[in-house]
Amino acid sequence: MSEHAALIAPAAAEFAGILRGIGETDLSARTPCAEYDVRALLNHLLYWGPWLEAAGRKTSPPEVATGEAEAGLVGADWLDAVEKQTARLVDVFGAPEAWQGMTALGTAEMPASIVGDMVLGEFVLHGWDLARAVGRSVDVAPEAAEAVLASAAAMGDQARAMKVYGEEVVVSDGATTFERALGTTGRNPDWVR
Known about the structure:
Layout: H1 5-20, H2 38-57, H3 68-71, H4 78-93, E1 102-105, E2 108-111, H5 112-133, H6 142-161, H7 177-184
Antiparallel strand pairs: 1-2
């Protein structure tokens, strides 16, 4: 799906705007991801970002000494760290070649296009999670919403089995494409903090 490469930079720009609206007092706010507050969700992004980048570059994954929960990556400079990581992911996955062929995410071999769609989903879905946590809205381009929905539907059963997605949330008949994508990933489009 190398045509999705063009969706990365606009999604990342929206994501970065959401990040800049998060204040110190927001870090303990709950998010639509039941197991994460804002700090834990930012930690999740900082932990997995290098893995996604390595998969896009088709290089070895980073060596890590701890698991995600123990990593403690959200320090005083968290905004700078996430913005730099976002820029690196845009640099890698904004290029069509990152989406071609096979790659590995850790020890799992998979089509590179799946990893690219994961990155797009990180920006769009976790962008929404963070925006909702701090009482803001998010602007998702129709093409990005369609790509995220297609990806979520394709890997939904496996993602739910791996506890990456929650149980599917039924949305109304008149739901937008993005609301359907949220529901497919176990998010309630009507979630409020």
